[in-house]
Write a structure and sequence with these properties.
This protein is α/β, with parallel strands linked by helices. It folds into two domains: 13-81 and 185-263, Rossmann fold; 107-181. The chain is built from eight helices and twelve strands. The structure holds magnesium ion (MG).
């Protein structure tokens, strides 16, 4: 069981890390550089809290922590880009009910309101592509495409629907896409964490490699932004255009590089 650490008494800032492709790299051994955790220890000592901001579910993330050999739990977890958890006793995660409850309610309303649009998207995906339509509890509208190109094609059908809607949006990561409420994503979830910690955006750091990270790599949410060398080209361009740091090294080696750059 991985233990949590007591929160720093005086929180001065928030660090937000994407998981897959950023902190965790399946291809490398170890999947996460141990030096990263030493840096977290040092930064925590001076009041910085850190957390994982991921598209994975809470369960999937927890197994990732074991695989990555986390010596202690992060101070917060954002799962499915929108569910906020804090560490409880015995390595369990406690749902931040106020936020998660509101998100769930808003999603239900959005899915009801967007039924017609979602039906049209589903029909397009099923009749015109080789992509798989995924419908599951709480997430009734998702797509797994067979290629990045196919995903781009599908998005040309999804985008106009989202532009018309005040509530319907989507989260996308490579060949995966999920219809989601426009107000809930890695950026708004991270802003909520910062608000709860009493921290301004100037003292928020975020790093990620994929499309679903663009919402938190937003200078209105995090003033310090970075991406690892393996980031998607769109993410790299965004980070450069917004005065962030593109690492020379990939995944967790890149994370360490970025932390040195911002916190030396
Ligand atoms: Mg990623």
């Amino acid at each position: 069981m991985i233990q949590s650490l007591p929160l720093p008494e005086n929180i001065v800032g928030v660090l937000s890390f994407d998981f897959d492709g950023t902190l965790y790299d399946q291809e490398s051994d170890p999947v996460t550089e141990p030096e990263f955790f030493e840096m977290m220890r040092l930064l925590r000592d001076v009041g910085w809290v850190w957390g994982i901001n991921t598209g994975r579910s809470q369960m999937q993330t927890t197994s990732g922590f074991v695989e990555s050999k986390f010596p202690f739990l992060p101070d917060f977890l954002i799962a499915r880009e929108r569910e906020i958890y804090t560490p409880g006793k015995f390595g369990r995660w406690v749902s931040v009910k106020e936020w998660n409850g509101r998100s769930e309610k808003d999603h239900k309303k959005m899915f009801r309101k967007s039924k017609k649009a979602i039906k049209e998207i589903q029909a397009y995906v099923e009749n015109n592509t080789k992509a798989q339509w995924i419908s599951e509890e709480g997430d009734p509208a998702g797509v797994i495409a067979t290629s990045i190109e196919e995903m781009a094609e599908i998005l040309t059908v999804v985008d106009p629907h989202c532009e018309k809607s005040t509530v319907m949006g989507y989260l996308r990561n490579t060949i995966y896409m999920r219809i989601s409420h426009k107000d809930y994503h890695k950026g708004s979830s991270l802003a909520e964490i910062a608000r709860r910690c009493g921290v301004e955006k100037d003292d928020v750091f975020a790093i990620g490699d994929g499309h679903n990270d663009l919402d938190m790599l937003d200078r209105k949410v995090a003033d310090m932004i970075a991406c690892p060398a393996n980031a998607d080209i769109d993410v790299k361009q965004h980070v450069i255009a917004n005065g962030g740091y593109v690492c020379k090294l990939p995944a967790s080696k890149g994370v360490i590089e970025a932390l040195h750059r911002f916190f030396e």
